Fold these 3 entries.
Entry 1:
Amino acid sequence: MINVLVPVYVLRISGSNIEAGFATGIVAITALVFRPLVGWVIDVWRRRPIVLIGSSGYGWANVIYALSGSIEPLLLGRVIHGFAISCYGTAANAYVADIAPPKRRAEAIGIFAATSSLGLILGPAVGFYIVSLLGFQWLFYLAIGLAVVASIVSLFAKEKPRTRTSQRPSWSWRTSILAVNALPIAWIALCLGMTWGSVTTFVAIFASSRGIENPGFYFTVQAIALLVSRTFSGRYADQYGRAFTIIPGAVAMSLALVLFPLSQEFLAFLVSAALMGLGFGMAQPATQALLVDRVRSDQRGLAIATYFMGFDCGIFLGSVLFGVVSQVWGFDIMWYLAAGCVLCGLFGLLETRNARVTPTE
């Protein structure tokens, strides 16, 4: 609800397209800054405490949103939101990778990702409805309540004991910022993030300019497609290889973006949403599984942090740079550039195509 509606809220309080993009991008850049430290911490400590810090951070960010009436305090909330994402996203994905059977890793990651899709199915449409009926303040109050529920539920997660083959070194600038063997997959994540950032930030604004009354339905259809694709794509990635779902997923996302300038009717708009959800649901879990395949379990946190650093950086670049493009050259050019961007991510597969990878425990 929040990430979709914050750009609209920025315009409501007299912000511009560029400021709307920055409000989205600053979340990603904050998460990017904290990912290396968070990845190191969850490798030397545990997953669940960081999950709890992240889920509670979502609540505090929305407290600030509810109290803000201008851009400056809103951006403070976005920074806290970014820190929360870096904690929860990194720790939760490492937790799932820990408990997943290696030969069904992509399937497990896909199922985990599918559960978030249930929230995405309801969130945007319900969010727009709440705003139209009660205003943004009640939207933020609801988000605070949901964050509290998430924190309570996270208390019941039990961690799998992890054995270490070697002593984990202390944090350092040279060894604890990036996992080098994760960089090719992080490049794919960066390109996916740029595309995802452009859609999350500008679809609601673009849809309103085309006369679509409730843009939240785009995200509902997209989330349903995400849910459907994530229930089967992981299984295929485990059986036939990660590229089997990554490549078609990237192509589907690109087609979805190309459809935007051609979407003069509501039906075409929803077809684009379905392609975007289907494509992202196929590509993203498989890239994460490919990443985890390539690293030892005691480096898993840092590798996942590196992956999401790429994704966060992509969201920031997509939100800010495409915001400039949309304001200077218009939305049509922006969508075509975003479509090309997601296909560029496939170059990250070239480094791994000849490597025979055995999934690690």
Entry 2:
Amino acid sequence: MTSPRFSILIPTRDRPDTFQHTLKTVMAQVGDDYEVIVADNCSGPRTKEIVDDWNSEKIKYIRSDAIIPMAENWENGLNECSGDYITILGDDDGLVPSSLSLARNVIDKTQAKIVSWALHTYWWPDTIVPWNRNRLYLEFGDNAVHMDKRNTLIAFYQGQISFGKLPMIYNSFIHKSCIEQVRQKFGRYFAIPHIPDVFSGVVNLTIDGDWYHVNRPMAVRGNSGKSNGTAQWARSLGEKQREQYLIEEKVKLENMIHETLVPSPNLQIIIANCKIKCKELIFPDDDELTVDIGMVISGIITSLNVEPEAYDDNLFDAKALADKYNLTIDPSKIPQHQPTHRQATSGPIGTKENTTGIAVNGDLADISDINGACRLADALMPPV
């Protein structure tokens, strides 16, 4: 195969049980205009065996002989991509069967250099979050919208949107010319260690090229038992996986978090850390894009009962950050600890007036992996 239109890069680190199903979702795509790059970060032999079993010229496999930081492995994989449009797919995530068909339609109609998409979410049966095990959360949407990069960047820094709304290479096809623009500025595409996904989303908002966002999900985000993202989101449950991540990244938490913050796995602090590091490198003199420490503290306080199991740890971090800046937290603003009864969700999601999605019980739907989740997700959507 020559000159593929799409490159799908799958970095993987010894997760053959999920990787094999992720690869199935990619190889199920219609057409011959795509390639698959597997960047194996020193996994055991099973990962290579899974690739070899496909015996496909579409798949290119590379492997590091020692465990390297995530951003370095991603960059190595990116170097092997020859497609016009490139995306990165986690090794517990998946593409729905219509992904490339929809991407072709949007690109042909808009000539966009960046095409991002909404995500369904699948919680694998082994996730560390027990009340979500084998649950598929589907999002409804069908249109493609031209996006304003500057307004999105401002909204992110002001805390109006989450990093998941950014055009990250982790939820977008990025034209190779955009990637080259970043490399010309910083020498590499993933220019900040340890936060390659968020960095890509921020830097992609500062380069030339139209951006369209597709509200119909083109992929399913998988949260498996080894998910680093889940380990950050579920602070009380993810300590073991966070420790493993830091070992493999060859960094201590206090060295990973910016010195203007406090070392913590709290999600609000992690996001602030990303914002500060991106600002220092990409737009240090842009006074409109700043991190408000008071807003970070307020974000921690108002979300204390989102994960009541980590209430005390998160409150401690909020107070430590306030002390660092000689700020006072109004005691009346601190919500009382309210333990939550956890139970699985099933059925429509949204308000009485507007259903925005649906939660599916994977056990009843007879699915148990990301490939089954992707196929079911597309089966419940209108045809492309």
Entry 3:
Amino acid sequence: MRRSKRGGFTIIELVFALVIIAIVGTVSADVIMRVYEQYVFSRDFERGQNDTRRTLDIIAARLQYRIKNSAVGRRPGAVPAADSILSLNHENIDTNYPILEWVGISYESQRATDADGRAGWSGAAYKTSTSGFHLARSNLTTAWATESEMIGTPLHACTSWTDGDSSDCSVFVFAGSDLRGDYFGDQNSSWGWSAGTDTYSYFRILPNAGVLDQNITLATYDAGGLWDNVPPSAKGTERLTNYYIARSAYALMIEKAAVTDESGDLVLYYDYRPWLGERYDGGRRAVMLRDVTNFLFKEQGSVVRLVLCVLPSEMVAGVADPAERRESQFCREKVVL
């Protein structure tokens, strides 16, 4: 007697098949979810790394054109007058000095050239009198026009530090033999970082005979300053001296909505003049990067090391454990010569 062919699955077989499909589906969904989470993490991490690198590159480009010995770390006090200032290469510079400040060289106006190929300012000057200088291969008219275009407002030849145009005045700074632009040991007295402090590093630029071209006369800014306070390299019988022209100071710091927040915005302040008694928070403000946990800086020799740490909010969203959140933080370092 012939046995009939089997025509389908038994109920037990179907149950087993459904169970296996369910298990495979669950595992696959878990794998797919983990792969997607890893992709999102990698994407956000890469984006954060790129943003951090780009921000450090921008900072380095600006900091490269600093007057070397003007760079300081600031520790805010209860009131501005109680702020503490240390030079950037001071051994006590640490996280207690969270604000990086410096006076920037007006390199845009330096690079500007006129029809004769003369630079806005060359950086080399010959003495013509006690306080008169000839700026070789320079044309300050071109330099001033460039600065005016950059700030979007007319610039005027300065005649007095107390007139209405004083905020538009650029200043002359002796670079010195080591090109660092410093001849007083105290950072406050040299650069005016503390309000009310005499500043001897800056000199007002006055045009000779109304022609703002290559010939200038210099006068000190503050009432207590004397022409005799200029550095030795610009006095006596020496005829040639190096100089910088500056128009603005810069400040970088992390600003948090609350002191207890683990991250905040990295903010740049600019377009303020400490030689006029102006403080960083009186300048213009721009947010450079968000979700920043640490901004560290230190000068060693002639090199400034910058460290920027970021904790992107999208990468730690929903993560309650502080230790686990910190594991998502990443840092980048940049060296500025």
